[in-house]
Amino acid sequence: MTLILRRNSIQQATGDRVRVFASATSAVELLALGEPDMRWIVGIVLGMLSTTASAEEPAVHAREVDAAISRGLNFLVQDAAAWKAKHNCVSCHHAALVIWAMQEARQSGSKVDEPALAELTRWVAESGDGRTGVPRPDGIPKALNAKAVWFALGLAADPNPAHVSRQGQRLMLQTIVRDQGENGQWFSWPNTRPPIFGNSDESMTALATLALSSASAAEDQTVIAARDKGLRWLAETPSDNDPQSLAVRVILGARLRRPAAEWEPLVRLIKERQQADGGWRQADSMPSDAWATGQALYALAQAGLGSDDLSIERGRASLIKSQRANGSWAMTSRPTKPGDDGADSLIPITGAGSAWAVLGLVRSR
Question: Is the full-model pTM beyond 0.90?
Answer without folding.
Answer: no
